[in-house]
Amino acid sequence: MLKMLFAMMVTSFLMTGAVSAEQKIAVVNVAKLLEFFPSAIDADAELKIAAAEATAETKKMRETLIGLREKFLLARDESRIKSLSPTARQKKEKAAEDILMQFKQLEIKLPKTLQARKRSLSELRSVKTGSVMAEVGELVEAYAKIEGFDMVVDSSGSPPRGIGLVLYANDKVDITSALIAKFK
Fold first, then answer.
1. Are 121 and 89 in contact (CB under 8 A)?
2. pLDDT (tens digit, 9 = 90+) per residue, 110-156?
3. Are 93 and 78 spatial neighbours (Cβ–Cβ below 8 Å)?
């Protein structure tokens, strides 16, 4: 539907006579550009580091959980030894309870930590993407103005978030007013 609407707008634009034969239109493959764009490379590296740190943190928490479970089972089994004195048995039971409490606290904390890390990574990705796309837009606009292009269009097929299909358009090719006039 969106492609059809865009095609109708382009056709209408061409039919209004607003486009002259001397217009310069350029295309840029934004997806390909991002592969070489320094800010995008830096942002990608930063995101990978943050993801690795989050993964390491949660992996350590899981390993700690496994260790606490094993310690609890051992302490519980030790508290059940028949030859223990009542005082020694109470100490072992108390140790097992303490370990079990640590286990339960960490078991509650782990999913919350996972959610927090996912949210944090998502926010970081959003900020970095927005920043990179703003830089791409500024670069394209500056280049288009210097080279005298009236319009620059993304040819990648699916523009990244934060950037549209049309990356730059000179005000003289804006047909909004002409199209609105057709509805009056």
1. no
2. 999 999 999 999 999 999 999 999 999 899 999 999 999 999 988 88
3. no
Contacts (Cβ under 8 Å, ≥6 apart) of 173: 13, 18, 19, 23, 150, 151
At residue 44, what is the residue type? Answer: D
Single pTM value for the model: 0.71
Question: Is the Cβ–Cβ distance between 173 and 9 less than 8 Å?
Answer: no
Long-range contacts, stretch 96-99, CB < 8 angstroms, 24+ apart: 96/72, 99/68, 99/71, 99/72, 99/75
Q: How many CB atoms lie within 10 A of CB 86?
A: 7
Element (H, E) at 167: strand 166-169
Q: Which two tokens stand for residue 146?
A: 């210097």
